[in-house]
Amino acid sequence: MMYSPRALSIALQALDPVQFPALQCTFNPWLIGGGGKL
Q: What is the pTM for the complete model shown?
């Protein structure tokens, strides 16, 4: 598995989708480049 924020987010969500939704929300705009906020 490639070590990237997206892969990490997917892995964490797969492990515990209830505990990590906020993490994916944090990564999402950063990946898409919509927010440009990091």
A: 0.32
Please report how many Cα atoms fall inside a 13 Å half-sphere around the Cα of residue 4, on the Cβ side.
7
pLDDT tens digits along 1-38: 456 777 777 776 676 655 555 555 555 554 555 444 44
CB 31 within 8 A of CB 6: yes
The pair of three-digit structure tokens given for residue 32, joined into one six-digit string: 């898409």
What are the CB-based long-range contacts (under 8 Å, 24+) for 24-30? Answer: 30/5
CA angle, 24 as apex, 19 and 7 as ends, to 5°? 105
